[in-house]
Design goal:
Layout (H helix, E strand, L loop, with lengths): L1 H26 L5 E6 L4 E5 L6 E6 L4 E6 L5 E8 L4 E9 L4 E7 L6 E7 L2 E6 L4 E6 L4 E7 L5 E6 L5 E5 L4 E6 L8 E6 L4 E6 L5 E6 L4 E6 L4 E7 L4 E6 L5 E6 L4 E6 L5 E6 L4 E6 L5 E6 L4 E6 L4 E6 L5 E7 L1
Antiparallel strand pairs: 1-2, 1-28, 2-3, 4-5, 5-6, 6-7, 8-9, 9-10, 10-11, 12-13, 13-14, 14-15, 16-17, 17-18, 18-19, 20-21, 21-22, 22-23, 24-25, 25-26, 26-27
Amino acid sequence: MKCLFTTLVAPIVLVVLASAELTSSASGSDHGSLLVLSKSESTLAIIDPATLKVLARVPTGEAPHELTASADGRFAFVCNYGTADRPGNTISVIDIASRKEVNRVDLGALLRPHGIAESGGKIYFTIEGSRAVARYDPVVGRVDWTMGTGQAGTHMVVVASTGKIYTANRDSDTVSALDPARGQSAWKITQIAVGKGPEGIGLSPDEREVWVAHRGDGGVSIIDTATDQVKETFKVGRAPIRVKFTPDGRRVLVSDSQGNEVVVFEAATRKELKRIAVSAVPAGILMQPDGRRAFVASTQANKVSVINLEDFTITTTMEPGREPDGMAWAK
């Protein structure tokens, strides 16, 4: 009987394991969580990336716009931008495993936190209403550095591995490049003129280029990070609003908020590869870490489109909440 039991169970175990492997392969996902903000509902949706099911909705501060995750995937940091009448001045810290807000960082007079990025264990974010960039240290639980850009509408931010910061300043038609202090040298700021209404900004994985989408004239400017000068500008669509490189750096996706399209470019040649029709007002773009899928939030349609990055087709859509925009991946 013992031998017979073993004989019967072994194939069952193999079938279960094979099924699990197929499910994992089909989802094309790393272990982790997909995080999507709802601006209208003031919530963070925690989503299973394999099934695309919402596991939890966690309340945040009012009208959250952008977020990032800690490098270890334990926490999400949410910029609570606020409304037209009530400018926000807080950052929500969400424990992803327990699915709850564990801290709400009071920024005092720093108004309208927006773009946000993690680098070296620190959290960098723009303060649009205060024309500045700041840094939050999760270990000590406080903002440990702030620097003014001198530009209006400091909106989105990217941070290089060297600590160099770039911000898109949508009301000044500039990008600010902030070089960290070294030795006896103080921080250096370079203002780079780009097109009208720059908002979306993306740093190439090799950190040699910054692509900036300016919604005011439909163009994209490419900045050489070695010189901090614009080396190329070209037309994309009606109102490009976000820019994101694929993890391998070969492709760039740009969301055109008024054209209701995602435009795909070959990064090296700038060649347009495809225009993908999506739902109304595409904004935030998120790349899956393994490079198989991209997620695009259409704020007015309350949908997120899932794009297969092998053939640039939409495989499905989901509805994580009203007015989805900012997204992040928690490893």
